[in-house]
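Suppose you are handed a protein chain with no further information: no name, no annotation, nothing but its sequence. What can you learn? This example shows the usual starting point.
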Amino acid sequence: MTMNTADFLVEIGTEELPPKALKTLSDAFMKGITLGLEEAELSFETVTAFASPRRLAVMVKALQTKQADKTVERKGPAKKAAFDAEGEPTKALLGFARGCGAEVSDLSEIETDKGIWMVYHLAQKGQMAAELLPNIVNKSLSQLPIPKRMRWGSSDVEFVRPVHWVLMLLGNQVVPATILGHTASNQTYGHRFHAPGAIGIEQPTDYVDALKQKGYVQADFAERKAAIRQQVEAAAKAVGGVAEVDDDLLEEVTALNEWPTAVVGEFDESFLAVPPEALISAMKGHQKYFHILDGNGRLMAKFITVSNIESVNPDSVKHGNERVIRPRLADATFFWNQDRKQPLDDFLPRLKTVVFQQKLGTLYDKTERLETLVVKVGRSLGESAEILERAARLSKCDLMTEMVGEFPDLQGIMGRYYAQAQHEDTRVAEALDGQYQPRFAGDDLPNGAVSQALAIADKLDTITGIYGIGQIPTGDKDPFGLRRSALGLVRIIIEKALDLDLQLMIRYSLELQANIDVNDTLVMDIYEFIISRLKAYYADQGVSAEQFEAVRVCGPSHPLDFAKRIDAVCQFSNMEEAASLSAANKRIANILKKVTVALPEEVSAELFSEAAEQQLFSALDALRESVSTKIAERDYTSAMQLLATIRQPVDAFFDGVMVMAEDEAVKLNRLALLNQIYQLFRQVADISRLS
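A reasonable first move is to predict its three-dimensional structure. Written in structure tokens, the prediction is:
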């Protein structure tokens, strides 16, 4: 029998939706409908989402128009409980039949491994998709991730924004439904200004082209995003520059426009005396403008705005935007000039008025902790205490400036500019910016020992303080960004090859916190929290979970040391001896787990009775000194290559020697030999964890 299918389209027309949430809402709406169709056992080919400022839509290609008929089996009482001694139906069976709307004669028997049971087979006719779709759409809409729903007019309907129309088509038929207080129709509406009238949609496949050709709406989010990028880049090229297209800004601008048109505007070149980051922040943050760089990477006195109309007079759009940006840039200029009237040091006392965290004190308290901690970190990197303390002392001062008050994303960046303006040591100025790096995944790491030391100290202070007072991140809740800080911290240490003892630094940092009891358990808990961030970091580099765990369980306190062990384990895993030695170590680990007595520290050759144990002992003895030397030099790769050479005597030992001998002294001697092998490997990694 041929299954009937038809395309399905639903569109919710609204007031302008929140731009930063549009893509999330669109994806969730599509996911909800997909899940609803799967639960209803309605097959389909593809599901596509459309999203613009005034609409959320989903199109389903080749949707099954009617559920398949099916037989539902209802299980009743066991046969022995269904009939009495005379073979008459019991109350239990009669009640079951009545509940099914059937007679006892309509029931069947099934045989299971637990005996014979009574069942009723109910023929269930499939429902029409048109009957099921309203509930599927309503359920998906009710589950959208909307933090605060709103009501409008006298209606009790709630949604993220007021709803103006609902379109629902299955094939060329309107699906009878009331969605968010609106009766579904086959009408959509175009651009608010270019085509505000109703547009009839005859069938779902007409939707995208009808909106584009009649409605001045580009409904496909990805297509609109690509078009904006192309327009912005072309507009910049036309004026001799290159557009810096920030992806987050591009996403937001895509969510703000239905019919995008890029327009180039200009501003007075005198504004270029202000640090470019401040001008860019004003353009991006307030006006959603893209900035343009010249051939030397310097900011040009031009910007690109994306207008939501195709104006017959583009110059009026250009001049309007130029009028709007001028006071924003004038504010940035005023802040720049005002902040430089006093040295950064003068902002320091104001940090006493800003609480970092109630139990951890103010930003001034944090600064004082950093002055001590940064020296502990930085002295081991070869920097002077004087420079390190100066960087820490000024580290948070720019937070109190007018510029950062207006543009918080400029923290650190403005600190660097103000420090340069007052002729601070270059290392200090760079550190005020570098302390916040990496700001996001894939961001650059701080350069120079002072910047690196301050970045590490700042992140350590936050992690140890917040974790120490019990505010451990749970689920997706991490208000202080501890996970991001922890990953940034270990990335700096590893990628910049800094030989720092992380456990020691955690203890130093905790001891500077006023309201935290420092103990070994807390130190190790924080260490594990930080190191656990490396699991995903290494997974991205192709390191398996087993390889990561093989090193993690050994607890190396230096992240750089951790990284060298990971390299060694990865190279060892590719050797032909790896599988055999990993299996042998797993076997040894399992044997040693069951040992309840202390093993001899030294292995006695006099207790050997088998050639294989003598050969293994000799092979181990010959390797021990050279392996220990390589481990002391942290040349773990060479150490593992040396250890790989004992594969043959280890295999021969397990083939020819009974470890658990009847003679207690012989048994303990053999266990001690195996323990020495296991512990020697563990000085690099626990390879018993490798599969």
